[in-house]
């Protein structure tokens, strides 16, 4: 089973993959937005259902 089968969007998969690859780091919304090349509001929207 792929992560894309579990989550609603590719952006959610990218977020989850990034968090799983960096388990010891602490992130804020702006930092995640920068890494994912999306707006902070997009990070908030895709993280809310998680």
Describe it for me?
- There is one protein chain.
- This protein is mainly α and 50 residues long.
- The protein has one domain.
- Helices cover 64% and strands 0% of the residues.
- It contains 4 helices and no strands.
- It has helices spanning 3-6, 10-21, 29-36, 40-47.
- Helix 3 packs across helix 4 (40-47).
- The longest helix has 12 residues, at 10-21.
- The protein is globular, with a radius of gyration of 10 Å.
- The two termini are 18 Å apart.
Describe, in short, the structure shown.
The protein has helices at residues 3-6, 10-21, 29-36, 40-47. The protein has 50 residues and is an all-alpha fold.
Rg, Cα atoms, Å: 10 Å
Largest sheet: none
Number of strands: 0
Strand residue content: under 5%
- Total number of helices: 4
Helix content range: 55-70%
H/E order of the elements? HHHH
The chain-level structural class is mainly alpha
What is the number of independent domains? Answer: 1
The separation of the N and C termini measures 18 Å
Overall mean confidence score, pLDDT:
92
- Shape annotation: globular
Which segments are poorly predicted (pLDDT under 50) over 5 or more consecutive residues? none
